[in-house]
Description:
Elements: H1 3-14, E1 26-32, E2 37-41, H2 54-64, E3 70-77, H3 87-94, E4 101-106, E5 111-116, H4 117-120
Parallel strand pairs: 3-4
Antiparallel strand pairs: 1-2, 1-3, 4-5
Pfam family, one: dCMP_cyt_deam_1
Enzyme class: hydrolase
GO molecular function: cytidine deaminase activity
Amino acid sequence: xxxxxxxxxxxxxxxxxxxxxxxxxxxxxxxxxxxxxxxxxxxxxxxxxxxxxxxxxxxxxxxxxxxxxxxxxxxxxxxxxxxxxxxxxxxxxxxxxxxxxxxxxxxxxxxxxxxxxxxxxxxxxxxxxx
Length: 130
């Protein structure tokens, strides 16, 4: 699947974000090795510690449906350009592989950037460290 198509799916998922406090909408589209795409959005809760990011929503959805191997994840926010995954999301994503591709940007502005998770979290703590 092309990066632009996956990013458009993340932008669509962003519409479902529940963000009554920050108004900062984020959507994610996670491409599994099976070819299936899992969508997620951020969900804010008044007790902010219970808030869940779009990236983790997509990962947990995929795992709960039996998929544990991923190719790439696209992340789209209400920011005009790119929004990187937070530290907690990076740690969750690295559980499933350092080579995961991270797609960021805004398709309307034709901004599409690709990174590997290893670039975003180069000295990660993984199951190999256990």
